[in-house]
Amino acid sequence: MAEILNFSETGRVTRDALSDLQTHFSADLALVETQISTHMASAAQLIPEIGAHIIGAGGKRLRPLLTLSAASLSGYRGSDHVTLAAAVEYMHTATLLHDDVVDDSDMRRGQPTARKIWGNQASVLVGDFLLGQAFRMMVAARSLEALDILSGAAAIIAEGEVMQLAALQSTHMSEDHYLRIIDAKTAALFSAAAEVGGVIAEAPEREIEALKSYGRNLGIAFQLIDDALDYGGVGQVLGKNTGEDFREGKLTLPVILAFHRSDEEDRQFWQQALQAAQSGAADEAQHDANFTQALSHMDKTSALADTIARAAHYGEKAKDSLGLFPHSQTRDLLKQLVDFCISRAY
């Protein structure tokens, strides 16, 4: 099995850089929270009820922090970055509500999903409401370019979801195709969140491109680590519960790598196990047995270690993107954030 280095042994940052970033932007985050609460108001009581359930369920506000950080790096002195950060969180929350319906997910961040409690219809409709409110906030920020970026990201995210849905049964999916899916499904919002921070500050184009690159590469790294965490790792830092993806029959990079590196007998296992998960045919005992066997295949093929290595590669690209900016506490925290996201797998 490929060697997995302990970050503490290499001197890389393993402290909770996300918490440090939250502390650094605590004043702005408080304003973001106010915007989130204000725009949740509705005559339909179910909307704030479901919104509070998912938005208050342990989310770390990572994507809004990217907007706040990017605006800070670009020297922004106004207040519209707060509005855009709240819009970004609404977009993210809407995608979670919709994702859980598409995936038939029962648990998220250690608690029942909105669809499990209130049903699919309510989850979809509240997700639509949040998207609508997000666009209202974008308009309020008075930046046509930021509106274009975030609305474009919303379309790309939906495309990524459709691409993933179309490929659900295809265990022969290539790594490149999977990376295109997560580039759209996950990294697009990371990228847009960082990019609009530079746009609202009217930063030079080269800085905006650097922020966009940071967000995109961090988003890919983040998703790959999330993939790895489903098969082991820390698992508690950002709400990831081991086995959720496997239980839902999701094709993620560790599965794709393990499948392509397996012999015919092992490939039959993956096909049967994923099909049973997707159809709900496997009972709890069978699921547990399949998951144990999947972990054995991960170990045998080094699929998990190589997924983490690929995430580290994208993480380094994210950090390199920040080289354009002068030294500052914000830049240091964003670099440390990359290492923190990668270190979740150790």
How would you describe what is shown here?
This protein is mostly helical and 346 residues long. It has a single domain, classed as Orthogonal Bundle (Farnesyl Diphosphate Synthase). 73% of the residues lie in helices and 1% in strands. The protein contains 17 helices and 2 strands. It has helices at 7-10, 17-24, 26-38, 46-55, 62-73, 80-103, 114-118, 120-140, 144-166, 175-200, 205-229, 244-247, 253-260, 264-279, 284-301, 303-321, 329-343; strands spanning 107-108, 111-112. Strands 1-2 form a two-stranded antiparallel ribbon. A hairpin with a 2-residue loop joins strand 1 and strand 2. Helix 5 (62-73) runs antiparallel to helix 6 (80-103) and helix 6 runs antiparallel to helix 8. It is globular. The two termini are 15 Å apart. Residues 1-14 and 234-239 have low confidence and may be disordered.
Tag the structure with descriptive keywords.
346 residues, mainly alpha, Farnesyl Diphosphate Synthase, two-stranded antiparallel sheet, 17 helices
Concise overview:
It contains 17 helices and 2 strands. The chain is mostly helical. It has a single domain (15-338), classed as Farnesyl Diphosphate Synthase (Orthogonal Bundle), CATH 1.10.600.
By CATH, the topology is Farnesyl Diphosphate Synthase
N-end to C-end Cα span: 15 Å
Stretches where pLDDT is under 50 for at least 5 consecutive residues are 1-14, 234-239
Number of helices: 17
